[in-house]
Fold these 2 entries.
Entry 1:
Amino acid sequence: MSTFEERKAGFLAIELDGAGYQNLATAVLAAESAGFHAATFKDTPEAGRTNALQRAAFAGPVTRTIAVVPEVDTVYTEPFHVSTQLASLDYVSGGRAGWIATAAVSPEAAAAVGRSFVEGDALAQEAAASIEVSRRLWDSWEDDAVIRDVATGRYIDVDKLHYADFETPADFAGTAYSVKGPSIIPRPLQGQLPVLAAVSLVGEGLVPVDAVDAVLVSAPTPELLAAEVRDARARLGSSVAIIAELDVLLDSRGQAAASRVVTSHDSGIARFVGTAAVLTELLAPLLQEADGVRLHPAVLDVELEELSRLVLPELRRRGLLRAPIQDGTFRDVLGLAPAENRYSTTAAAPVAAGK
Amino acid sequence: MTRDIFQPSGQIQFGIFFQGVNSGTIWKAPQAGSQTDFESFRHIAQTAERGKFAAFFLGEGLRLREHLGRPHALDVVGRPDAQTMLAALAAVTKNIGLVATQNTTYNDPADLAHRLQSLDLISGGRAAWNIVTTDNAWTGANFRRGGYLDHADRYKHAEAFVETAKRIWDSWETPTGPARPVLHEGQHYTVDVTPRLPRSAQYRPVLFQAGDSPDGRDFAARQADVIFSAHPKFDDAVEFRRDIVARSIAAGRGANAVQIMPASEFILGATDQEAQEKKAWVRSLQIGPQQAIAYLEQFWGRELSSYDPDGSLPEIDPVVEETSETRGSGFHGAKARQLADQWRAEAKDKGLSIRQFVTSKTARIDATFTGSYTTVADHLAEYARVGAVDGFNISPWLIPTGLDEIVNHLVPELQERGVYPTEYRGTTLRENLGLETPVRSEEPAHA
Ligand SMILES: Cc1cc2nc3c(=O)[nH]c(=O)nc-3n(C[C@H](O)[C@H](O)[C@H](O)COP(=O)(O)O)c2cc1C
């Protein structure tokens, strides 16, 4: 990650939940054409919403450049399955996968899988454990473990496979568990998928900063976002990318954005309501303070059209957007170095964190 | 037509089983491609769709197979999560069914039901679940639950699981909801969920079952639409059909309610002789010298590397009483000493070396159709005529081009004989298999 001073251009992500599953291919292609760097997929319980990771997987093969980043819960899911599914997403997207690790605060989610309800600090513990399991499993095959050596008849070099042997820490609030490994799929194409989490989950006593690659930061109003970003940077240091969250509702085809506000707004994310030009002026400094901004369109089709016609071209013209990287990885978008394998038998020194 | 008399359809269909483990897929040939790259999966799925295959299957193994305490090194290994891969393939195919093998012990019913229904909706009604019941503690070491299920309980557990899943899928009264909550309180888990999704174009995912014990067959007769069977040889297939028809009728379903698609392998050529030569070549690549020894080591429980693969079976006895599950269900629980005696006698009788013997045990001997395109097509037409099976689930021995000759040469021969579809019947897997729309599952009285 480059330092704050060096950064000139940021990246833009768009939340594609509004596309549902029927218009997914069209929507993700439109987002890619518009120049968005990443598409994200929500997974909180809501009638009609299909599994986020599968929507991301569907989007993988129809696109070329845009990263596909689903939310996947860490509390009521099986860490072993989550790790395999995300590694698989990396394969089907050609190394463009990421993970927004969420921690569901939901008695309903607990009841659905017959587990006891988790809240408070225990949420971050569950998240930290799940992320650690995934990271260990992703490293459990070294990059060159598949050797296909005809002379010895060996498809893999067993010395390059490792048991994850994960155990929840002694002070774990939830039910303790262990995971053996190795993974059932070779190391993901990116080595380690970038892991994103809400800033509220990350920090001392929560999910360790070095367990995540980026945090999602929100504020009560658009105007306060830059200050929140600076706060997060001060608290977490410069090793983590900061992504500012913004709801957008734009004037469109002669209709004022304000007149389109129909539902009450309770996403917990600052909402911008206004013209594309004013949004551009808001985003310009934000893309320099933060590493990236994630936009949550109020109505996907409407907002996406305005964004791609008016906002992204202008930001690009001003040199504020990173150029999309053809055939690049999500790590490339975030400016992350190639992920060293903690178990690597050839690496000079063992790497402590999974990044 | 009575529900109690089986009526052959006169047709067969194909499915493709993309193997990610075992020695059936050869990797040593120069033509062998990647087992993990998306392009391999795309090529196979699109070739199958060109050949009007009904379904694309992915297997599942939730722990790497081991050999003498370490991951097994000799066969292809390492495969993507089935549903994630199938969701991606849904984007690049239009008609082919997408079948995910998923086990009932290390999944949560509400989560798995939601994911399968998501796949069904995303694919426009093409999803299926191949229900398996892996239950060992060795696999359980990868999961929060650990190994908590007795082998004897695996189908009881599976049945409660599948019933719960069906109620989840059936919970939307109308296309827009709302859902009725689904409750299940069982010995091993409780579920209390308000389902989120409407029905798909095929109402709910098609159910496949792959398990062969009497309990497994009864379970299939009660719950499944299709059995992924292990009985492809003609007489055996006819007998298996008879058994399943009897079990289906006993379960209160019609004689034609459950379809059968055995696992199979095809080795084809322009002539019978060419196919036979190809078979020898395929077999030599499936079971090399190291694999032959390793296979015996699994049953002997000790290193046998000093034995000559082209010599006779080891005279020393196994050090284990029972084989463990570490190489998958096929190896699980065999009586090692008894087996070793039996095998030594058999190999001596037939004059087989270690390598020849292991090849005869492993290489889907019963499941292989070898011959020219016309010979094999004639043979398959006979299966269709008597209704021995509804189709074959083909494991290609080569990735990614292993279906090419089947689709280019065998399928047209079958179409000429009028026993294989020339077009997809519809857009959903259920339509393409000719299955009836399921009846809505009943709410249990206590719920
Ligand atoms: C053709 C066939 C394919 C199978 N594929 C898988 C698989 O991919 N993953 C798995 O865990 N079990 C697989 N199984 C194992 C069965 O699901 C089942 O767990 C096992 O056969 C034990 O059940 P049974 O005692 O009823 O036979 C397969 C079985 C058959 C016959």
Entry 2:
Amino acid sequence: MATKILTGNQTAALAAKLCRVQVIAAYPITPQSKIPEELSEYVERGELQAEFVRVESEHSAMGVCISASLVGARAFTATAANGLAYMHEQLHWAAGARVPIVMPVTNRGLGAPWTILNDMQDSIAQRDTGWMQFYCLNNQEILDQVILAYKVAERLLVPVMVCFDGFRLSHTMMPVEVPDQEAVDAFLPPFTPAYHLDPERPVNINPVVLTDPIPGADGRLYPGYMGIRRRLQATLESALPVIAEEGRAFGERFGRSYEDPIFRYRTEDADILFVTMGSLGSEASEACDVLRDQGIKAGVASLRVFRPFPKRAIRDLLATQARLAVVEKAISYGLEGALATEIKAALYGLNGRQPITAGYIVGLGGKDVKPLDLCEIARQTLSFGSHEEVPEHSIWFSNEI
Amino acid sequence: MPTALMDLPEKEYILPGTRTCAGCGLPIAYRHILKALGPKTIVTLPACCLTILHGMYPKTPVLVNAVNNVFGGTAASASGLAAGLKALGKEDYVVLAMAGDGGTFDMGIQALSGAAERQTNFIYVCYDNEAYMNTGVQRSSATPSGAITTTTPVHPKEQPKKDFIQIMEAHHPAYLATTCSSYPMDLYDKFSKARHIQGTRFIHLAVPCPAGWGFPTRETVKIGRLAVETGVIVLYEVEDGIFRLTGKSLNLAKTRRKRPVEDYVKTQARFRKMTPEQMEAFQKAVDERWEGFLARAGI
Ligand SMILES: Cc1ncc(C[n+]2csc(CCOP(=O)(O)OP(=O)(O)O)c2C)c(N)n1
Ligand code: SF4
């Protein structure tokens, strides 16, 4: 174990190296570009034995990863924003093909108008593709979550996006504890594919399926489209205990446990809780300390795992709180922030134990979110006397035109 | 030395009972391609009539490993197979990417151009039935002018076919060839050769489609031959930059017995609304292209 000062991107590349990825599909987009650049250096210097495919687009990057994974190689790519949107078709294909790809997403706002700076619209817009989504608070979590992601993905055969905020983490240097290669090898054994391409027993992968189950040549009944899709959902429904188990094992080995899908800060006695994701979780923690100095008992619940959605953990934690401020950097246009909707849905049906919940949209396109802004959000949330007083849609927290 | 019919491998890699239309030119070609490439082939294919040939889960008539992928992603999928196999040290597999004209000339061009520029180690074959047949005979950029399709239903297509083979030649592939399902031996020889070359190999395969072109199912082989005999399709290969006419086209070049394109055009319902001007332009374009090939071949 050594402590290094690294940017988020350097951390993600180093994590991929520690995971001994075998095929890397590389396509640049700000703010992710440094990840493939670093990896190309590792490969060209001979420090990492991998095929480095300099693809011509993100659509192809995911296509390369899917097929490389299908023949049994541990596959890696990274993207952001428009690149992620351009991959959309392939994202569904990867999850449907059940290939355990791990992909860092350096969260960035989507055009138009153009921005290269951070929000989470890109990955939130891909939440329904069947991928798992992990979000990182800081650079240490980037390293840890990439390693954990491969472990979980290869156990469940579901791909994982490891999302972290563009620039705020991708370009910011922080101390990161880097485990030894041997320790990572012991935690993450080589990838053994679920299907083996054997010329003696050829298979047709991802063929056309019918709607209803159909008997095969062996007389067995094989699932139709819906049955196959249900199996993906069933896997995701039962994924949280696996993530917790591996997160605990990670903690035992490396000293940082990811058993809890939620990062919690001073939640026990809080009257107001920030509910958020990504680096906002760290910023909200700062705001908490300020608020507590002023006599307001604030806390933070920041989701590390967004898909599968940790509904039960959220219920257990949030239903006992008085107020929630759901603060997020993405919006489902025409309604409110996606996290706000999901938090409310998780608390639905708890017989009157729903805390007063206000949604806030912050930080789009890199707009700064200061601890004092968060303090103001907390105060506003505390001022709502009843559910009825909370505005129908998420509140845009920005004092500008 | 061209392979003799009697010397073709007996082993079949597609079983009877594919789901293509009766009389389709695709299974004729595919059967011989797989004979040439053998059991260690991994095919990757997008949405197209070949997907239909491959059948529906859980059954397939195809006896080699196959990976289906998105419409525009064939060459990317093949790049992933090639990279994955290399990373695992499995060097003796043949990666075969096979897509229709729509999945190649139109949506697939980006991934194919990228992979060819990287000199990715695979064989890419575009089987060209000159329209989006799988979705019901819509025009593609491979559709010749004068053809009726379901998206050019009243006025036949105006624009000429995209010269995609030239686009591919401009990528300097390790091997480039054209062939046609009506000449299985020409096809077999070209795939046998391509198999032993490293780098990107591109083969254009003309496939007559009775359903889309409008001819009786028993005439598939004849229509493909007419395409070659009239010079609409020219059989050739480019290896190490050296151009060579092959098979029937070489024979035509030597005997100067090329037939008028009308002999080909009048066999198909898709050309029923072709104007005399279009016919004339078609003949002119075919002749010019042919002269160019003769000059390249030094004949
Ligand atoms: C992104 C996307 N757009 C459209 C389609 C629908 N689609 C499926 S097959 C096909 C046409 C295939 O045509 P071609 O590649 O010429 O092959 P053919 O069917 O003629 O064999 C289309 C448009 C698709 N699968 N994916
Ligand atoms: S539509 Fe044409 S190419 Fe497709 S299966 Fe039928 S005959 Fe063959």
